[in-house]
Amino acid sequence: MNIGETIRNFRLQKGMSQGDIEKRTGLLRCYLSRVENGHTIPSLDTLAKIASAMDVALATFFSDAPADNGTKSSPQVSDEVLRFLNQIRRYSSGLNDSDRRLVLTMVKKMAASAGNGK
Questions:
Q1: Residues 6+ apart with CB under 8 A from 3
Q2: What CATH number corresponds to the domain at position 14?
């Protein structure tokens, strides 16, 4: 999953420019470009701002299943998973890009290990 590519696709589907997102979020256009091109990984707080600016649910960015109309649908998420994601969101806001990448790499490795029955 490339979150920047997902953001760009939703933005274009909504007919919005990076400038439109900048006006609604206060995030600089150059930052949005870096996110969309995969040079920067945004925090969950930043993703929430972007989702709100585009009038989509934050969870929509993480859904892999396309809806009937070709857009992505919001996945059904348990309360336990929502609590976990909110904790990650709360603690990740103070992390720099390098630390966010490290956390993401660790989570990917743990998920891969869990998928292999380890």
A1: 35, 41, 42, 47, 61
A2: 1.10.260.40
